[in-house]
Specification:
The protein is built from four helices and seven strands. The protein is globular and about 40 Å long. It has a seven-stranded mixed sheet, sandwiched between helices. A hairpin with a 2-residue loop joins strand 6 and strand 7.
Length: about 170
Amino acid sequence: MVDIVIRPAQASDAMAIHRIQQQKDVMPYILSLPSTRVEQIQERYRNLGANHHEFVAEVNGQVVGNAAVVQMTGRRSHVGIFYISVDAEHHGNGIGTALITKVLDLADNWLMLERVELGVLITNPRAQALYERHGFVVEGKRIGSIRSVGQYVDEIIMARFRPGGLLNSDAE
């Protein structure tokens, strides 16, 4: 088992996140483009809004993944949008689980989000299985909603409801 440290993301993590997101086994499954520049990621981290909560995972002092929940506002303030990316060399080593666990703890116990949503490409069943292990359920599919490596790919829409929360069907 590797020792994983989860901490808030900062602008100095931009180079590592850029490296991860440019990997051939990561890029097809995320919304970044191959033309994304390190400076764009640095700027994003410097200007994260109060509702944007992003963490990185470190192994031996090296950033190997990031994940976030972005709390919506207004009538959707009970909802968070989740995203994640993990270094391809560390897939299957618990990085995704550690990041998801940290983000869901924040969502459940600090932000009190009732619903966390995500989209996963139909071409990424391994990620879908990871999300399902963490309580996400499939709600539907967007046909051809994402361009990836020269083709339109369907996006599976998933959500997870706060355990014991107002929207959790188990709470009835």
